[in-house]
Amino acid sequence: MKDTLVFDVRYLRDGVFNEQEVDIPVTQINFELEEVQFISTVRGNVQLLRHGEVDVYVIAEVSTDIEMQCGKCLELFRTEINASFEVQFTPRKNTDQIEDEELDSGERYFDGETLDISDDTRKALILHIPIWPVCSQLCAGLCFQCGTNLNEEKCLCEETDESENKALEVHSPFAELEQMLESAKLDAESKTNKHKENSPKNGTPKT
Description:
The protein has two domains: about 5-125, no CATH class; about 155-200. Strands 2, 3, 4, 5, 6 and 7 form a six-stranded mixed beta sheet that branches. It has a two-stranded antiparallel sheet with strand order 1-8. About 10% of the residues are buried. The protein is elongated. It is of the alpha+beta class. The protein has helices at about 100-105, 120-125, 155-170, 175-200, and strands at about 5-10, 15-25, 35-40, 40-50, 55-70, 75-90, 110, 115.
């Protein structure tokens, strides 16, 4: 079990995968996210393959556990995030090449002896953090009026709202207006039908 994401690749053979299990303290990876707490090590599987005489191809699957706040009930909850990525490293030819530019362009360089996939691991895991986190698909959230966590108890606001809505339906003047409009519509349809019956057919008045 390897406790670092820095790999010595001097002894990799061309066309032969070198597979290693990793278990990394999160302090080795600079996540810098205030709203998310990383509460376990970063663990996973890393495969390295020398491609040609100089390039090294990396396939990694990593996971970790995080704690964050539910967007509905505002309670803290824990969840696991999983990520995978593939990247190819090329020996650095120009010592003035800047690492930040490498990350932006998607190119990766190393010194020919060791390579570090810490930044790739960090970016891959961050991309899998939920944008709208919820503790459960069944989370009922908070009452919009009193703030009660509806996952833990039922507040009285819902019953009050239902009673008020029924009272409004009974006493609202708009309910009476709707009935008047419906009666007027039916009366108009009845008059239209009578007019059609009394209308002349083929130019001959009905007697």
